[in-house]
Amino acid sequence: MFQSGHAIEQLRSSPVETSIFAFPTDLHGEGVETVFDNVQLRAGLGGITLAAVYHEARDLFPHNPGGRIRFLEGGAAYFRPDARRYEGLALRPRPARLTEEFDALTEGVAASRRRGLAVHAWTVFLHVDWTCDPRPEQCERTAFGDPLLTELCPANPDARAYAVALAGDIASRGVTTVVAESLHYHPLEHGYHHERYFLPLGGRARFLLGLCFCEHCRAAVRVRGADADGLRRFAVDALERAFAGEPDEAEETTLEEARSLAGGELAALLDARAERVASLAGEIAAAASAEGAGVAFLDASGAVKGYATGRPEGEPAPSIAWRLGVDVEAVARACGGVEAIAYAADPARVRLDLEAYRASLPQDGTLSAALRPMLPDCDSAENLAEKLRLARSLGLERVDLYHYGLAPLAALDRVREALALA
């Protein structure tokens, strides 16, 4: 599992590719050449990681003349899909309205090639925001049977076929890497606008409400010899007690506690989730590889811990990946590479998380990281430079900076200075 000392020394001497996340609306609003001038000349970066499919959002864009507060479409594809790849499938990509006049992925790949830059496709797979046209057949379901309409289930055959076809379609556009976001299960608080819970929910209730009990997940439990229906009843009973006011003071449920629930039966569900996620990652990697692209599995654990404040606490980020159905080592074996979300102001915390990821990877697994060159994570070039030096010392393949359109332009100057210092 661990890298040999000789291998680590070789990695430390290797350069780290640097790229920056961007939205198609950045290219459309500011102009392709302006964005690429800022990425290449102002920030001094070697690539762009462009959103190919993205979820709904309302964001502030401090330098986009096309609109400073903008709404992104839900679950939209920012390219023109190849319809042949989705023939006979229950699900297919939904092109953004923007694609009627502007295919951002095609434009981004062409601009990158002209300039000798790398281009990666940032792809949100299973968080779809399709509530305007719900697909309950393919969604995750709570123990009560409620469909979570924004989350496709990694165990659902239709959702898996869609994700594999999507990966191949995007990879065929000439990108170097498909950066796979949301290729896993989702916790209760994954995020929908105006979520409301007007009762105290402890760690166990939140955990149980975030588990999927759809027919396909229950079938995977039965294959492991566990009582799937009994397990669902256990979750319902525990949640009903929480709704009735039974105290649940635990902040979080640990992996050991979770595996012991329902007389140890819940372990079968957790194992099934991890297997379904890892196997889906492998299928997507195979589809991308057939088109000449790699896959980086974007693990959201660091965002769960540090997105809001930039001050994650407790155990390293990969220690909670199991809550999303992610076995970091198994996923890396399946698709070759993991990208960690290292959203933390303190470089020591970034080191803690990245070293934990590195220790979890198979010897040939690659590691990348997403860093924020702006608040709440970064307020100086030296802070960012220290994190970039750390990335090089740990042999990271790439650092993705978050995010071109959301950052003030002064952050790009900070990036260039940090690269010089690193």
Which short descriptors sum up this protein?
single chain; 422 residues; alpha/beta; 8-stranded parallel beta barrel; 14 strands; 40% helix; globular; disordered N terminus
Explain what this protein looks like in three dimensions:
- The protein has 422 residues and is an alpha/beta fold.
- It is 40% helix and 16% strand.
- The chain is built from 15 helices and 14 strands.
- The protein has helices at 5-12, 24-30, 32-42, 104-115, 157-171, 203-209, 215-223, 228-243, 255-260, 266-289, 301-306, 328-335, 347-360, 381-393, 409-421; strands at 17-22, 47-54, 57-60, 69-72, 76-77, 94-95, 118-124, 139-141, 147-152, 177-181, 294-299, 337-341, 366-371, 398-401.
- The strands form 3 sheets. The chain has an 8-stranded parallel beta barrel with strand order 1-2-7-10-11-12-13-14, surrounded by 8 helices. A two-stranded antiparallel ribbon has the order 3-4. Strands 8-9 form a two-stranded antiparallel ribbon.
- Strand 12 (337-341), helix 13 and strand 13 form a beta-alpha-beta unit.
- Helix 3 packs across helix 4 (104-115) and helix 14 packs across helix 15.
- The longest helix has 24 residues, at 266-289.
- It is globular and about 60 Å long.
- The two termini are 29 Å apart.
- Mean pLDDT is 93; it is low at 1-13.
